[in-house]
Amino acid sequence: MLIQQLVNGLLLGTTFALIALSFNLVVGALDRLNFALGETAMVSAICGALFMSQLDITFVLAFLAALAIGAVVAGITFLLSFRFVSAEYHTAPILSSLGVGLVITSLVTRVVGSDQRRVPSVLEGVRIEIGPLRIVGDQLIILSVAALMTVLLYGFLNRTPWGTAIRGVSDDPDMAGLLGVPVQRVILLTFVISGTLAGASGLLTGLSFHTVSPFTGFETTLTALMVIVLGGLGNITGGVVAALMIGVIETLTVAYLSATYRDLIVFLLVGITLVARPQGLFTRNTGVVGRV
Amino acid sequence: MADLQLRALDITKHFQGVAALAEVTLEVERGSIHGVVGPNGAGKTTLLNVMSGFLPPSRGVVELDGRDVTRLAPQKRVPLGLTRTFQNLRLFGGLTVRENVLLGQHSRARTGFLSLWPLRTAAEKELDRAAEHALEAFGLTEYRRRRAATLPYGLQKQLEIARAVSAKPRLLLMDEPAAGMTAKERLDLVPRIRALRDEGLTVVIVEHDMEVIGAVCDVVTVLNFGRKLVEGAPKVALASAEVRTAYLGT
Amino acid sequence: MLFLTACGGDEEGGDGGDDQSDAGPYRLGLVHSSEGPFATNSATMRAGANYAVDLINADGGVNGRDIELVEVDARNDPQTLVTAIPQLVSEDEIFALLAPVDSAGCEIACAIAAELEVPALSAGAGRPGVLEPSRPWSFTMTAPDASNSIPVLEAIMEQESAGTAAIIVDEANATTQAQGDLYREVFDGSDVEVVSTVTFASGDSSFASQVTSMAAENPDVIALAAGPADAARIAVEIRSQGLESLLIGTGSLQAGGTDYINGAGDAAEGTLTAAQFNPDNPDEPAASLLAQAEEDNDLDAVSLNFAYAFDIVNLIATYLTDSGAAASPDTLEDDRQGLLDFLEDVEAYEGMSGDVTFAEDGTGDRPELYAVVENGQFVISEVGS
Fold first, then answer.
1. What are phi and psi of A39, to 5 degrees?
2. Are strands A211-212 and A117-118 parallel, antiparallel or unpaired?
3. Average pLDDT, stretch A174-187?
């Protein structure tokens, strides 16, 4: 059973990893946190779930729709909360993106109601058994799609000119501008990709939890913050590792201790990290305080 | 009349009442290598900053190809063909050597978002070759996959020039390129700068090292206390009595 | 002794009481909650109350006056209750309060209302002792989960000849914790061995871990001590992991039935719960009231909280009509006391939810029923049938 629980934990971790990747991209590009990403994930997931149940479209199409919605919402968030906000006011984008998140939540509850929505299972009946291990269709989808998206992201960032531009801008935006890199467009692109990841994370999390609720947005943001603090702000690989770690820790806590200790243990871990290694477990970069 | 690519006319720059530059005029002829020398605090880097747009002059005008660019931001001067390097390195430390050069080309790239290997256009392949060429020209080919931050200082200086050049500017402003280089690297630098000029690039070079200046420049301007002291061919200018006084105090 | 009929409007509005049409509307407070594990129950309650008010007002109101609901969204936040209820009483001068449907909210809201000597009625609170701090000012339409569910579930255990059971409990909520205790009592009393108890905290988590733990013991029965939305997700996870245990719930799971069934889909099929409300009640006048409500509100089936809230509004309207109470600032105190006496004495009010009477502790006295999910609906039967 321990092995099965470890797998459960890794699966939970993969959904955390996507949303953490999403946050870290923006941190990298702008040194700012987009606090509306949790809600971006939520609205993508709600729409994806509705498309599947109401319009009867396949998971693949609903997933692509969720990606597109995430991308558009994040793009709009950039224009509303970041693009025209002076760089002198460090806290302004925090507040304005939090505001965008609130607006998204109330728009969703206004338009489609506050009920949680069922995310129909994909590959129902598929069950792979390897020794004591059992992986069902939904989990298989979550694992492979999350892995594929992570690999695609790495490929994009490391192997394409625009990916290189994103890394260049996140390293030194002024210098990138001097070399003729269209910095604002690169940042917009970063937001759009980050929104795509948030959308993917939203629907995959919905698939894992079987439902999506319009009120999970900020919780998602909180989880992502835990992960990226633990993994090192802006550290993409650190974020993935930390996400898997938190997934496993949460699952094992629930399985062998109690659900009420779950958040407590994660918060403790993050608290200790902040005090002992404010730069995160997996990075030698500047600390959290310096970058928010 | 000479074909002037860059003119800095009567540039005065005050820092809190102190004049770092006082009515300095610099005229750079197309296709030349123009040196700016002078003791510490003479105003060399300030002049470079004014010409590249990093500092607005208190008075005076900067013209690029006859166009007044005095109030134009540095990024806006890039498309007009002006690029610069920095005395303190500003490489993308986390990127590889090759990626640094590729970013230098970004403005010309016009690539699609998904330009992965099987989807490359001919133009993109051409840019790739250009990048390889730039790496080779500055002796960086063997380090192309290394992260820029892990290179020795001298090679980082070379990389910064290679990156600046790969943006294909028509005018390159270099701030102390030889500083921190080994004797051997300085020796390599001279023919490389000459080669750039031979490919049609105009170079303005601010430098302490008189050997490099003497070997590479067509014209040298000597500044002292924010004023132009002498201007002329290197041998003449550097030998003049005023310069010797300014440098050696004799 | 009073024998009353529901659907107040008919005779009351026209000629029942005095004509007070100049006095402005009768105001009733309503506290709902758009968030938390019982948000859906709360929305249902709100719909039922508003439906009742609409019918009454469309029919001329009470004593020539409209009834007006002054609503507050507490968003599952006790702090909101603490500030909002005194405000409802002092500023809006409400006559009585429709308290939150969930026990946790009801307990706080009723206590505050009692302090201000305002009658409060809940259309759903069922945790044992929930009214204790606020008696005699509070009532709940619901029979307490324990007194209603324990005998029903024990009968089910016997009928299914279950040997082993697992319990999954939402630890973050007092109501569901009480449900967990209830199940332990049931299994104790029916010689069912509890082989696994797992916990969760409402809302944000995947249930893969908990279900894996339970699956390792392969229990005959899994008892759901969870809000209906969480219970639905647990059911889906149980079925997706291939576990075939019988799912059981208390009466409150059936009360939030729509949310459970919508959330769980096929995974809900076969779930057994205790029940105290029959949406297909064949007795009149409940049958016609239910049919009318289904039609007017486009509902597949009327939920418990809807019917209970509907009956609360009509109970109050009946009192106002019978007594001709003005509920004006001068008489408010006496009129509120009058409502209390009226509620204490109600013997057989025939409403949408069937016969309404209150036990001495203010809780509803309800029939022992059980429900099974068949083809996406709770089908209600009497125990032993």
1. -70, -35
2. antiparallel
3. 84
Task: Give the Cα separation of C41 and C255 in Å (integer).
Answer: 8
Q: Are residues C84 and C210 in the same domain?
A: no
Give the mean pLDDT of A76-101.
86
- Ordered domains of chain B (ranges, CATH): 1-81+171-250 (3.40.50.300), 91-168 (no CATH)
**Residue C253 near residue C176 (C-beta atoms within 8 A):** no
Question: CB–CB of A160 and B115 under 8 A?
Answer: yes
Q: Please give the residue range of the domain that contains residue C105.
A: 2-143+281-356
On the question of pLDDT at B229 being above 90, the answer is no
- Give the span between the Cα atoms of C194 and A255, in whole angstroms: 17
The sign of the CA dihedral A178, A184, A189, A195 is positive
Q: What's the whole-number mean pLDDT along residues B205-216? A: 86
Which 8-state DSSP code applies to residue A83? I
User: In this structure, what token pair is assigned to residue A31?
Assistant: 């040194």
- d(CA A190, CA B92) in angstroms, rounded, equals 18
What CATH number does the domain containing C209 carry? 3.40.50.2300
User: Is the ipTM beyond the 0.85 threshold?
Assistant: no
Which residue ranges in chain C fall short of pLDDT 70?
Answer: 1-19, 203-205, 384-385
Sheet of C120-122, strands arranged across = C67-73, C26-32, C96-99, C120-122, C138-140
**Same domain (yes/no): C128, C22:** yes
A212 bridge partner residues? A117
User: In this structure, are C91 and C109 located in the same domain?
Assistant: yes
Nearest in space to C302 (alpha carbons), one of C232, C255, C250: C255
Phi, psi of A32 (to 5 degrees): -135, 155
C6 and C138 housed in the same domain: yes
For B180, left (φ over 0), alpha (ψ -120 to 50), or beta?
left
Q: How many domains does chain C have?
A: 2
Do C241 and A97 meet the contact criterion of CB atoms below 8 Å apart? no
- CB within 8 Å of chain B, chain A residues 145-164: 155-156, 159-162, 164
**B90–A175 CB contact, under 8 Å:** yes
A216 and C CB contact within 8 Å? yes
pLDDT at B119: 54
Do C161 and C119 share a structural domain?
Answer: no
CA distance linking residue A69 with residue A113, whole number of Å = 18
Helix (H) or strand (E) holding A212: strand A211-212
Q: Check B111 against A177: CB less than 8 A apart.
A: no
Q: Sort residue C324 into left (φ over 0), alpha (ψ -120 to 50) or beta.
A: left
Residue C270 is assigned to a structural domain of this protein: yes
Strand arrangement of the beta sheet that strand B202-206 belongs to:
B82-84, B171-175, B202-206, B33-37, B219-224, B227-232
Q: Is the pLDDT of residue B110 over 60?
A: no
* pLDDT value, residue B117: 46
Q: What is the CA radius of gyration of chain A?
A: 19
Closest CB to B95 among A156, A168, A182: A168
- Same structural domain for residues C24 and C118? yes
pLDDT of the residue at B118: 47
Residue A290 has pLDDT above 80, yes or no: no
Percentage of residues of chain C with pLDDT beyond 90: 49
Q: Residue B195 has which token pair? A: 């080669």
Mutation for A interface: C204, C207, C211, C241, most A CBs within 10 A: C204
Whether B113 has a pLDDT exceeding 80, the answer reads: no
H helices present in B58-208, as ranges: 74-77, 97-104, 106-109, 122-137, 153-166, 183-198
In a domain, C365, yes or no: no
Q: Give chains near C: 3+ CB pairs under 8 A.
A: A
Residues C16 and C77 in one domain: yes
Model confidence pLDDT, tens digit, residues B63-104: 888 888 888 888 888 888 888 888 878 888 888 898 888 888
